[in-house]
Every structure is written in structure tokens, then in C-alpha cells.
Amino acid sequence: MSSEQVLKFVVKDAEGLRDVVLSKADGGQYLEKGLKESLSEVSADTVYEVVVEDFSGVSSLLGGGEITAGSPDIVILSLAAEMERLKGLDNPDDDVAAVRADLVAAIRRIKEELGAHILVTNVSTLDPSNPVFTYHGVEEQPWTLRGHRLNLMLIGVSHDEGISIVDVDRKIAEAGGDRAVVGAARYSEVGCQTILEEIVRIVEDYGFLDDRPIMEQVGAAAGGGS
Questions:
Q1: Can you list the residues of the chain whose pLDDT is less than 50?
Q2: 39 is a domain residue
Q3: CB atoms inside a 10 Å sphere around CB 103
Q4: Residue 123 lies in a domain
């Protein structure tokens, strides 16, 4: 990218991502170097802006209100808020389908109105406070099962819509869950650093940090490209 160019991120965060993308100087809890600082180490010719916005879930992006202020180049969505929608035992497949429909609609709206690239973080399926040894007699869908359902759904959405998955579940497992997770969708310093490095890798792979053409996000579904 050329000198003095600005690369703007909007991070829609229900829980957990703030400490991943923000340094302690910018309000994060753990990291000396957040997303801005980490990207600057890869390419210092660009000014990086990272805005974190509270997020109640993908359904909040539907309707007539603004998606976000300004014109971000990259929008990062957290799916942690959707876990609450999957608690019920009666119609779990219908619940996942409803989340999927809202997510696809939100993705298409972001692409159409903002022209931004979209990264979606999946959910760590590890909840150290609630290990489940049997699913008999449970009163709600356990966190682990909800996470697996949500993450599997997201793979299909990525295929159809072309968006990128930040594979939090895999990266946390590789880092060691006991070292990386302090609660459901809450990460330690090790976990935050691990997820941050994956975000930087994806942004770099797209071509945002050098002079080659930026890869488009083109999905298999009709109307899924940008």
C-alpha cells in the first residue's frame, strides 16, 4: 500500500475481542502491542485505526440504523453474543438456522453499504467453569455443544459468502486451553496474543499490507461477492 494510507478496522465486540485488538495504552487489559502496533511492525507505511464498538449480536446490524460511523476497510464480527440464542433444547436446528439467516443478511448489508472486508471470529468451545461429562438431563444446550453448532454453521457461511473465519477455537486449542482461556469466550494474555496473531496473518494474506492487489471476498452463493 502507498505511503500515508489509512487502514481502518471496526471491531463489533460482544465479549472478549477488546482485549485482543487493543493495547493496554488504548484500553486493553493484557497486551503491550494491540492490532495497530502489530500491523505497524509488518508495514510501517500505513496508518492503522481500530475502533471497538459494543455489539449485541448480528441481528442488531439489520434494520434502518447505521452499521457504523465512517467507512472501515475491515469489519471484524464476534459471534459470542449468538451463543445466548442457542441455549434452548426444543429446536436447536431452527435456532442455528435463525442465526445463520441473520448473519448472512448482516454480511450482505456490510458488503453492499460499506464495501468492507469481513472477518468473523468463531467461538472457543472450551468453558473451564462448566465441564460436561454427560448430556442426559441438561436444562439448556451446554456451551461446548452450542459452540460446535455455531462454528459448523460459520464454515458454510464462509463458503457461500466468501468471508474469512478467525478460527479462535483452533488457535486456542493449539495454545493450550488451560493457558489461553479464563472463562467462556474470555481469554488470558496468551489467548489474546494468539488470536491477535491470527488476525494479523489473515489481514496480511489479503494483501492489505503490501502493494499487491487486495483479494476480494467472493462466495459461492449468488450475490455473495463484493
A1: 1-2, 224-226
A2: yes
A3: 24
A4: yes
214 found inside a domain: no
Distance CA 129, CA 168 (A): 18
In a domain, 215, yes or no: no
Domain count for the chain: 1
Residue among 199, 202, 198, 224 at smallest CA distance from 215: 202
CA angle 40, 45, 50 (to 5 degrees): 50
Q: How far apart are CA 54 and CA 69, in angstroms?
A: 13
Domain range for 165: 5-206
Tell me: the pLDDT tens digits for 159-197? 999 999 999 999 999 999 899 999 999 999 999 999 999
pLDDT at 224: 42
Hey, which bits of 26-113 come out as E strands? 46-54, 74-78
Strands 181-183 and 186-187: antiparallel
Judge whether 31 and 95 are in contact, CB under 8 Å.
Answer: no
| Cβ density class 5-43: b for 16+ within 10 Å, e for less | eebbbbbbbbbbbbbbbbbeeeebebbebbbbbbbeeeb
Q: Label residues 118-134 b or e (16+ Cβ within 10 Å = b).
A: bbbbbbbbbbeeeeeee
State residue 63's pLDDT score: 85
Q: Residue 141's pLDDT is what?
A: 85
CATH code assigned at 201: 3.40.50.1110
